[in-house]
Amino acid sequence: MTLLARMLIGGVVGAVLGFALYKFVGCKTGACPITANPFISMAIYGFVGAMLASGK
């Protein structure tokens, strides 16, 4: 499997986990910068997932 494929898979898995964090944990007050917005949560965790999958 190429590096690009691993990073894409890791990014998708991270984004799904970020959305799950938003959906099931969330932030009731809206003051939490990561879990208050699903797009920010998915972007951050997608990036982390891609970096972890790349091994760098």
Overview in brief:
By secondary structure, the chain is mainly alpha-helical.
Q: Structural class of the secondary elements?
A: mainly alpha
- Overall structural domain count: 1
Helix fraction bin: 55-70%
Report the sheet-strand fraction: under 5%
Distance between the termini: 16 Å
How many DSSP E strands? 0
Major β-sheet annotation: none
The total count of helices amounts to 2
Mean pLDDT: 92
Rg calc: 12 Å
* Low-pLDDT stretches: none
Q: What general form does the structure show?
A: elongated
Helix and strand run: HH
Written account of the structure:
Helix content is 70%, strand content 0%. The protein contains two helices and no strands. The mean pLDDT is 92.
Q: What keyword list fits this structure?
A:
single chain; 56 residues; mainly alpha; elongated
Write the layout of secondary structure elements.
Layout: H1 3-24, H2 38-54
